[in-house]
Amino acid sequence: MKKWIFLCAIAVAVTSCNDRRFTIGGDVADADGQMLYLESLATGRAVVLDSVKLDSKGSFKFTQDAPQYPEFYQLRLNGALVHFAVDSTETLTFSARAADFADGYELTGSDECTKMRIVVDESGKLKRRINELNQAVADKSDRVETLRAEAMQALAEYKEKMLNLVLENPASVTSYYIVFQRINGNAVFDPYDANDRKLIAAVATAFDMRYPESVRAKQLKDMTLAAMVAERAAQQTAQSIEAQSTSYIDVNLYDLRGRKQVLSDYVKKNRVVLLSFTAYQTEYSPAYNMKLAELYKRYKNRGFEIYQISLDTDEQAWKVAADNLPWVCVRDPQSAYSQNASVYNVKTLPTCFVIDKNDGIVKRIEKVNEIEGAIQSRL
Description:
This protein is α+β, with helices and mostly antiparallel strands. The protein is built from eleven helices and 17 strands. The chain has helices at 2-18, 111-138, 144-168, 173-179, 194-210, 215-243, 263-269, 285-299, 315-322, 339-343, 371-376; strands spanning 21-29, 35-40, 47-53, 59-65, 71-77, 80-86, 91-97, 106-108, 182-183, 186-187, 252-255, 260-262, 272-278, 304-310, 328-331, 351-356, 360-365. The longest helix is centred in the middle third of the chain and has 29 residues, at 215-243.
């Protein structure tokens, strides 16, 4: 009899361990008749787990199996999303209004969800700064440079705050969430940036140690290693370019009409090509392009061409600025994270390279007044 009771106790214990559940419930005001969805983000895309049609009270309750490893979920109402994480058998309480569902909500019951809300609020502030700058650029406001400086300062402060959150617990779901934050589609922390990669690597290492079998841990590890390999390859290529004047790396980018423009095509057609890395949304750009326009007019008929790569973040602003330029204008959508700029070891803007049809790269130039002499020596 004692043996039977003991075996039953074991069975109950096993069942309890396997029956791990989490619950999120609460209310959404002024959402009568609207559908609220609970979705999993475990596969990298949203998968509906449950849904409810809200009544006049707006009350809801979702209960699901808890994940084996920390995982992300979201509540969705009319396209508005609220992300949250689950790393144990938690009971979360949610409260919001339909009108500002994704911005004015309250979510309690989990320290990690509270920290994730801090990330959401801080990234929202940064996004407003960036959008204000982009609008000023579009409007050709005289406050562009002031707003640019303020946006850069806001970005630095944001990264500092996020670093402090990560250092509290690199293996937390909040740390993972921080790594993959995006603003207007652009990653805030770039694995190809040496400083950003330190933060990403810390999270990757912590996840690999705590959750070695987790898909999230593998994703972080693979991303970090891939960036390190790419950086080493870029450094080797850049060193090769600097050491061998006969080398240049081809570039394939699209112009403002959507046509692919290949650098090597222009090198084959012309005696000299000036490969120019720049950004039109900068204070120096108007004077720089005026100087290039003088050189282009002077030497175009002697076999000279300019292949200019824009690293501007705002595509529309680039199109407006490049519309009337007579040379080849393309834009690298990777902007500050451009691999093209990386392989050419571009550290400052503007930077250009004089490419001779027969001899390849013959000069790297960072001072505008050196361009004409380098061109003349090859024409």
